[in-house]
């Protein structure tokens, strides 16, 4: 059945592109490709988008609202960062010039923080979506992923935030370091909890504990599933220890992939932190809907 | 001028092979290749060695004494670990079977530690060399590299040791992570010292500070030389914080590449630790000489 979009929501990250045919706040259809920002030259963004959305376009001009790395300097159009403290959506969406005449494309700006220096692109839209669905919510939002963000929110503004490279470190260490031989498929909950507890109580230990995963395999034939869970626990424990000023005694929401969000929520629970989990894609769409409502 | 070796010392690591034609404790000639353990199948070790040393062989049988990853399970012959506390050289060198008839090849065993699980191969020989040249020396020996070792030595024995993946983390983060765009050639001493001080005083901060290198580049166009020095400082500070129980109030010796050893020594000096630097190759040869003297 053919779908005609009233408008189109786009989540355009470093490695993926997802588009949603929308009617008001309702998703009519979705499509995705691996044409992430990192694989595209300037001239390739337009065709990559049109391939996905062409079938959803009606007779008039359709608005497209996008968030994520598509708005970086190396993206399609640079959407200059807003500066915290700030509402997650600044209202200054950047319009892409010279697009196919059937669409107007707007890119949501990211947020920057002067000190300590930090940036986000995409997460501000998820935060906006969460706040649109949770009125008057104050607390801390954790957005786990390749670069996990911890975001302090108060009175509908982002007050401050901090980025942790935990996801990327896990990928590098498990895939490209000497630990690759000792980290494999599967999961060992006890090994995860032991790793988590180790670095939560002594975060400096991580520098020494990482090689222990390899040594434990060599000396004790520790299974690769335990190695993987322990690596995950050590890295997450170090992150939670460093992020403690963010989450201690706060309302906490986690927005991310379901599996990863549950790992964070469970880890926080061991420290007396109770986190609600919100669906990542739902928050992105709610945020893009809010961004669309801010368009002139 | 042709050289005939009385015996041959070999330092055979993961990525390199170095051979030395010896007379007693004196180096007559040296040769090297990139035929490290990681690039060789079992049957290729013999030819890789003979290519380097063939010209040094006399009429009789020449002893070859090797240390390093060549003795790992995936190496030429497995030389089972000694267990600490132990003299750095256990005397149980493993003879390689089925070599060229003109040589007898012995591989020095590494050391293992049951708890916390840890292993070394190659560094035990450098420690033995250092102790051979520094009688009755008690203290801590730091061997910086891809996997830096901190080794507690007392009464000519290795009491305990700990491995830090600092060098490998630096390589992965500077070469393969999002930080690669913000870390380049050159050095900025102030950025190094600031990074070092940050994680020495708050080691848990490393999880958050790493992405700050990227953000600082994006927001402030921080030069890539400063990014590189800061990354180095942050990683080394975290290592020194974790290794503090090893070096605090101890005699310290650093055995490694000259440049890297000086970075460690300078960093320790900021914490009131005074380290002497010993030449890496000289210690390896002294250690292999001691290992030869233990042969039956």
Task: Assign the CATH superfamily of the largest domain in chain A.
Answer: 2-keto-3-deoxy-galactonokinase, C-terminal domain
H/E element sequence of chain A: EEEHEEEEEEHEEEHHHHHEHEH
Strand content of chain A: 15-25%
Query: What is the CA–CA distance across the termini of chain A?
Result: 32 Å
- By oligomeric state, this entry counts as homodimer
What does this structure look like?
- Two copies of one chain form a homodimer.
- With 296 residues, chain A is of the alpha/beta class.
- Chain A folds into two domains: 1-112, Nucleotidyltransferase, domain 5 (2-Layer Sandwich), CATH 3.30.420.300; 122-296, 2-keto-3-deoxy-galactonokinase, C-terminal domain (Nucleotidyltransferase, domain 5, 2-Layer Sandwich).
- Chain A has nine helices and 14 strands.
- Chain A starts with 6 loop residues before the first strand and ends with a helix.
- Chain A has a six-stranded mixed β-sheet with strand order 3-2-1-4-7-6, with helices on both faces.
- In chain A, helix 2 (123-133) packs across helix 9 (280-293), helix 3 runs antiparallel to helix 6 (224-242) and helix 5 runs antiparallel to helix 6.
- Chain A is 37% helix and 24% strand.
- In chain A, 54% of the residues are buried.
- Chain A has helices at 45-53, 123-133, 166-176, 189-201, 206-220, 224-242, 244-247, 258-270, 280-293, and strands at residues 7-12, 17-23, 26-33, 62-67, 82-83, 94-95, 103-107, 111-113, 118-120, 139-143, 148-154, 157-164, 252-256, 275-279.
- Chain A binds chain B through residues 112-114, 116-119, 147, 162-166, 168-169, 172-173, 176-178, 203-212, 214-216, 218-220, 235, 238-239, 241-243, and chain B through 81, 112-114, 116-119, 147, 162-166, 168-169, 172-173, 176-178, 203-212, 214-216, 218-220, 235, 238-239, 241-243.
- Chains A, B: It holds the Pfam family DGOK.
């Amino acid at each position: 059945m053919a779908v005609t979009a009233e408008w189109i929501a786009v989540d355009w990250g470093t490695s993926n592109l997802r588009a949603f045919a929308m009617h008001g706040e309702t998703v009519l259809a979705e499509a995705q490709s691996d044409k992430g920002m990192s694989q595209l030259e300037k001239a390739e963004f337009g065709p990559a988008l049109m391939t996905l959305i062409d079938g959803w376009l009606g007779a008039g001009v359709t608005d497209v609202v996008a968030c994520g790395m598509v708005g970086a300097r190396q993206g399609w159009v640079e959407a200059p960062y807003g500066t915290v403290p700030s509402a997650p959506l600044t209202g200054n969406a950047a319009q892409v010039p010279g697009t196919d005449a059937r669409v107007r494309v707007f890119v949501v700006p990211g947020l920057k923080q002067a000190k300590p220096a930090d940036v986000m692109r995409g997460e501000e839209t998820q935060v906006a979506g969460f706040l649109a669905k949770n009125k008057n919510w104050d607390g801390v939002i954790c957005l786990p992923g390749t670069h996990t963000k911890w975001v302090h929110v108060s009175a509908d503004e982002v007050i401050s935030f901090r980025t942790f490279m935990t996801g990327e470190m896990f990928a590098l260490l498990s895939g490209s370091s000497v630990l690759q031989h000792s980290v494999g498929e599967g999961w060992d909950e006890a090994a995860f909890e032991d790793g988590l507890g180790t670095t939560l109580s002594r975060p400096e230990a991580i520098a020494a504990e990482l090689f222990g995963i390899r040594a434990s395999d060599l000396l004790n034939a520790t299974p690769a599933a335990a190695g993987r869970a322990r690596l995950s626990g050590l890295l997450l424990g170090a992150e939670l220890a460093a992020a403690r000023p963010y989450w201690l005694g706060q309302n906490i929401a986690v927005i991310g992939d379901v599996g990863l969000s549950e790992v964070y929520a469970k880890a926080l629970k061991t420290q007396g932190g109770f986190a609600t989990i919100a669906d990542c894609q739902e928050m992105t769409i709610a945020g893009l809907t809010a961004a669309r409502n801010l368009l002139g």
